[in-house]
Amino acid sequence: MARRRYLAVDPDNRLVAGSLEADWNAALRELAAARETYENAKSDGGGVLDEAQRTRITALAADFPALWNDPDTPMRERKRLVRLLVADVTLVRAEQITAQVRLTGGQEHTLTMPIPLASWQIRQTPPDVVAAIDELLDDHTDGQIAEILTGRGHVSGTGHPLKPTIVRHIRIRYSLRSHPQRLADQGMLSLRQIARRLGLHTNTVKKWRDAGLLTGRVANDKGEYFYYLPGSELVRPRIGRPPAPRPAPTETPIESAQGGAV
C-alpha cells in the first residue's frame, strides 16, 4: 500500500512525494524485521513441545466441551476451534435438517435437528388454547372466554394476555363457529326472530323474559339474548290496561200506541 501511494503521487508535489517515500521505506524495514523474527523463531527449536506441554494440550483437547462452554472463551476463539476441528459440513434439508460433519482427523458424524419455525409459526396461537376456545364457545361469549382462559394462565401466541378482541381474532382465524351461531344451531332465536314469531314488540319480549315467561341465554358481550321458542302451553298475559266495567243498562219507558208512556 505504501508503494502504491508513492507511485501514484505527482512528482511535482515534492513534499508529498518525500513523505510517501519515507512511509514506504519504513514499511520495508518493518517487513524485513518481521521476516527476520519469523526465521529466528523457526530455527531456534521453539516449535518443539516438551512432555509437560504435550500433557497440557492433550488434557485440553480431552476437555473440549468445558473449553467451549467456558464463558471466558471469546467467540473468536470458538470460531478458531471449529476451523481447526471441522474439515467440512454438508447440510441436507428435508423433513428435518441433516448435517454430515467431517473432522480433520477423518472422523464423520451425522447430526439431525428440526427445521426452525418461521416467524409466523413462532407467534401462532398454541393448539391447546384454540381447542379450549372451541370448547368454551358452546356456553360462553368471547369476553367470558378471555376471562376464563386468563384465569387458567393461558396467553396468546405473542405472549399477550387474552382479550375479547384476541379471542374473536382466533375464532375467525380458525373458522370456529361463534356462540350466537351455536345457540342458533340449538334452535334458539334472536330477539327480532322470536318477536316476529310471537307477534310481539321486542320490548315486550324482554319484559316477558324478565317475568320468566320466556327462557333466554346471553349470546354476546353486548348483553343480547337468544330465546327458546315457547310451547303451546304459554299463557299470554293481557297486554295493556284491563277494560273498565261497563255501566248497568237503564230502562227506557215504552210508549203506547196512543203516544203515552207505559
Give an overview in words.
47% of the residues lie in helices and 11% in strands. By secondary structure, it is mostly helical. Among the domains are: 40 residues; 42 residues, no CATH class; 57 residues; 42 residues. The chain has a 3-stranded antiparallel sheet. The protein has a 3-stranded antiparallel sheet with strand order 4-6-5. α11 packs across α12. The chain starts with a helix and ends in a 35-residue tail after the last strand.
Summarize the entry for a quick read.
The chain has helices at 2-8, 14-43, 51-62, 64-69, 75-85, 119-122, 127-136, 142-151, 164-173, 179-185, 191-198, 202-210, and strands at 86-93, 97-103, 108-113, 189-190, 216-218, 225-227. By secondary structure, it is mainly α.
For the biggest sheet, the summary is: 3 strands, antiparallel
Global mean pLDDT = 85
From the N-terminal CA to the C-terminal CA, the straight-line distance is 149 Å
Strand content: 5-15%
Helix/strand/pairing category: mainly alpha
Q: What value does the Rg take, in angstroms?
A: 47 Å
Total DSSP helices: 12
> Which strand order does the major sheet show?
1-2-3
Shape category: elongated
Order of helices and strands: HHHHHEEEHHHHHEHHEE
Total number of beta strands: 6
> Helicity range of the residues?
40-55%
Low-confidence stretches: none
